[in-house]
Specification:
By secondary structure, the chain is mainly β. It has strands at 2-6, 11-24, 27-32, 38-42, 45-51, 56-61, 64-69, 72-77, 80-83.
Length: 84
């Protein structure tokens, strides 16, 4: 599936991934390929994803939103605190 992570200032990541784990308001949740469409708010916490090459990236983020539709995940963030 495709993942785009964007902020008002720049494109943070775009590429093909196996999974994305996000800090939701009701707790952490994971999105896998062919997940049902969803829109959710995000809270301060850890966002991680695994690329098709099995590389894992972790980011500590501020709040934002995520949309999953047609095997494309779009994450809109206010800012990244740091890469873990």
């Amino acid at each position: 599936m495709q993942l785009e992570i964007i902020s008002p200032k720049k494109m943070i990541f775009t590429g093909s991934v196996v999974s994305v784990t996000l800090p939701g308001a009701l707790g952490s949740f994971q999105i896998l390929e062919h997940h049902a469409p969803i829109i959710s708010s995000l809270v301060k916490g850890k966002l991680s994803f695994v690329t098709d090459e099995d590389e894992q990236t972790e980011l500590l983020i501020e709040d934002g939103f995520v949309e999953m539709n047609n095997n494309k995940v779009t994450v809109c963030l206010e800012s990244i605190i740091k890469e873990l």
